[in-house]
């Protein structure tokens, strides 16, 4: 039986530019015993991991799933209890369409300590790289980030609200 404390750190890997990762994210990656990573991360980030880390690809691409979400949740718990610190490395920010909250909610039921490291979302990075401010006095008072479809594959009601 492992004496290591089972921990999950959900880490936002940013929008793909290796230089847009936070120092806190790098520290989490370095301290991980296991990293479960998504398809949208820049794999160069895995170079920060220790040489003894277990790397597991759990990515999803256009209907092709290495693991279903329920399997990922169970894998986090299993690996954390077996090896200690699991980092769930997710593209962008884990709480913007990233299911980070779902994963944290699930593992807490099993007594895991949980932490979250925000990441830079593409919803902010892409416009910034193009010189487009998301808010600007006299031009834009706010911005919305809305999913196009819901978990049930229906059009989000927020799209209609935003269109008004």
Walk me through what this model shows.
The chain is an alpha/beta fold and 164 residues long. Helix content is 29%, strand content 18%. The protein contains five helices and seven strands. It has helices spanning 23-31, 69-83, 100-108, 122-129, 157-163; strands spanning 7-12, 34-37, 54-57, 60-61, 64-65, 85-90, 113-117. The strands form two sheets. Strands 3-2-6-1-7 form a five-stranded parallel β-sheet, with helices on both faces. The radius of gyration is 17 Å and the shape is globular. The model has no long low-confidence stretch (mean pLDDT 91).
Side-by-side strand order of the widest sheet: 3-2-6-1-7
Strand content: 15-25%
Structural class: alpha/beta
- As residue ranges, the low-confidence spans are none
What's the gyration radius in Å?
A: 17 Å
Our measurement of the CA-to-CA distance between the termini, rounded to an integer number of angstroms, reads 57 Å
Overall mean pLDDT stands at: 91
- Helix fraction by DSSP (H/I, runs of at least 4): 25-40%
DSSP summary: helix tally: 5
Order of helices and strands: EHEEEEHEHEHH
Shape descriptor: globular
Notable traits:
164 residues; 7 strands; two-stranded antiparallel ribbon; 5-stranded parallel sheet; alpha/beta; 5 helices
Give the SSE map.
Layout: E1 7-12, H1 23-31, E2 34-37, E3 54-57, E4 60-61, E5 64-65, H2 69-83, E6 85-90, H3 100-108, E7 113-117, H4 122-129, H5 157-163
Parallel strand pairs: 1-6, 1-7, 2-3, 2-6
Antiparallel strand pairs: 4-5
């Amino acid at each position: 039986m492992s004496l290591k404390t089972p921990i999950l750190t959900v880490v936002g890997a940013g929008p793909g530019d290796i230089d847009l990762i936070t120092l806190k994210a790098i520290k989490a990656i370095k301290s991980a015993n296991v990293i479960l990573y998504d398809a949208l991360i820049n794999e160069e980030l895995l170079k920060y991991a220790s040489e003894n880390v277990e790397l597991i690809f759990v990515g999803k691409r256009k209907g092709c799933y290495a693991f279903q979400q329920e399997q990922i949740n169970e894998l986090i718990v299993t690996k954390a209890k077996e090896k200690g610190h699991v980092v769930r490395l997710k593209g962008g920010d884990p709480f913007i369409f990233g299911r980070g909250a779902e994963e944290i909610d699930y593992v807490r039921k099993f007594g895991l300590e949980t932490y979250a490291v925000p990441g830079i979302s593409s919803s902010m990075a892409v416009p910034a790289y193009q010189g487009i401010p998301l808010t600007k006095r006299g031009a834009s008072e706010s911005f919305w980030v809305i999913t196009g479809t819901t978990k049930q594959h229906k059009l989000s009601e927020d799209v209609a609200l935003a269109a008004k």
